[in-house]
Amino acid sequence: MLPAVALVGRPNVGKSTLFNQLTRSRDALVADFPGLTRDRRYGFAEYDDRSFIVVDTGGLGDDSSELAQLAARQTEFAIAETDVIVFVVDYKHGLTTADEQIVAKLRSANKPVILAVNKAEGVAPDVAEAEFHRLGLGAPLSIAALHAKRLNVLLEAIIERLPERDDPSDAHDSEAGPTVAVVGRPNVGKSTLINRLIGSDRMVTSAEPGTTRDSVQVSCERAGQPFVLVDTAGIRRRAKVSETIEKFSIIQSLRAIEEAGVVIVLLDAQEAVTDQDLHLLGLILERGRALAIGVNKWDNLDPAQRRKIEGQIARKLQFVAYAKVTYISALHGSGIDDLLATAFAAYRDAGKTLPTPRLNDILQQAVMAHAPPIVAGRRLRLRYAHQGGRYPPLIVIHGGRAERVPDRYQRYLANAFRQALKLEGTPLRLEFRGGENPFAGRRNVLTRRQLKHRQRVVRHRR
Q1: pLDDT digits (tens, 9 = 90+) for 373-406
Q2: β 394-400/381-389 pair status
Q3: 217-221, 292-296, 339-343: lowest mean pLDDT where?
Q4: What is the rounded distance in angstroms from the CA atom of residue 145 to the CA atom of residue 143?
């Protein structure tokens, strides 16, 4: 399972800044809840060939207000569901009584704890760390999250404390078939859908949001196709986020997405498309997973409501327009075979082998139809394309100054490849590599114009 790391500490010690640096994002929210001082934020980080989830928590302290107590409960949940804790303190404010109280809580968690002394810019590490040794959490590590200083030292300490990785296996070529993760907000019908697919009531279903407490894997076979279904606890509404039942839900969903070959996102037709749905879809796109979208509870809507929902989906889901939308009723079983077939098709397209001659034909036709733009007074030259990876498909394009291709032309080429290759349900990534100058770094090498000029001078002298 993908490990998780929690950032804890008093308010305003720089946890959110550190979160943004580790996840390389200014808005890596998955649970889009108001009041970030109270709720948890989630994102992915990668370092030294290791990936892990980062959880940013609200500030802990001696405030007895209702919001502070909610923040404290959220932090306790984060500590319980993660593998490593980064305790962030503030060098400028020094060691406080609140820090010592937090340490007492961390000791009872029985988890590896890394003490990060933040806001130590311009200060020698031994000076910044000296006061915090007496917390008894091991050697402190001074950092400056705002300026990204010494973050590599912190990351190395995190990697050392992460659980050992499981034996490597190719999830895409397993005999059990592809892993299909079913994710979505609470009470959209994920467990009901899985019960329909496996033909039993193996999953406990209930009308109460959040019935599923943990991820559950179920080996299945349908129409001769083996696969593994994963049911996850849903993304909770903010009003319910403090309930113990939410303890593992988002972490489990993120882990399922990361390990899946294809993700089925369920939307609730009765609630339309919410911001939480959009953030979840954006995360799946970012992680490069094949995608199928199911709109559940479709059977209870009248024609006018259906037209309204279809219009909203077409408008709001343009950024994942490559994914097919299937309207279903998990309760009655209508449309679920189509949804599963769509998921399998998306998975197959994500793993396609793309012949190099075919890719070059598509590139040439696209360039002839719409020439690359002129950048800095010179037209870009795109000469060669080949496949660079699968799950999702990666196409590498070489050419003169290819790395300077603007975003709008990149989107044009991506659409050209997608349409020609008939890719559906999978992201498509392009990588541009500029040609190297064979004379780079060599002295006294004349350009063609300089050489012609010198030849003319020599002939004139003769």
Answers
A1: 988 888 889 999 999 999 999 999 999 888 899 9
A2: antiparallel
A3: 217-221
A4: 6
CB 398 within 8 A of CB 384: yes
Q: Tokens 């696209």 correspond to what residue?
A: 366
Q: Which of 45, 132, 126 is nearest to 94 (CA)?
A: 132
Please, are residues 294 and 264 in contact by the beta-carbon 8 Å criterion?
yes
Contact 295, 313 (CB under 8 A): yes
Question: What is the reported pLDDT for 63?
Answer: 56
As a whole number of angstroms, the distance between CA 205 and CA 303 comes to: 28
Tell me the H-state helices in 64-189. 66-81, 97-109, 125-129, 151-161
Which two tokens mark 163? 């659980």
Per-residue tokens: 388? 């660079």
Q: How many Å apart are CA 55 and CA 30, to the nearest integer?
A: 10
Neighbours of 96 (CB within 10 A): 15
DSSP H/E element including 231:
strand 225-231
Residue 75 token pair: 């932090």
Q: How many residues does the structure list for the chain? A: 462
What's the half-sphere exposure (Cβ side, CA atoms, 13 Å) at 454?
7
- Range 324-343 average pLDDT: 94
Q: Is the pLDDT of residue 440 over 80?
A: no
Distance, in Å, from the CA atom of 378 to the CA atom of 363, rounded to the nearest integer, reads 20
Name which of 92, 140, 82 is nearest 114 in CA terms.
140
Instruction: Residue 390: name the closest of 347, 361, 446, 338 by CA.
Output: 347
Query: 34 or 409: which carries more pLDDT confidence?
Result: 409
CA distance 388 to 186: 37
pLDDT of residue 30: 34
The average confidence (pLDDT) of the chain is 82
- As a whole-number percent, the residues of the chain with pLDDT over 90 amount to 51
- CA dihedral for 316, 322, 327, 332, sign (positive or negative): negative
Residue 432 CA: distances (Å) to CA of 340, 387, 409: 34, 12, 12
The 10 Å Cβ neighbour count of residue 452 is 11
Owner of token pair 């990060």: 116
In this prediction the pTM is: 0.76
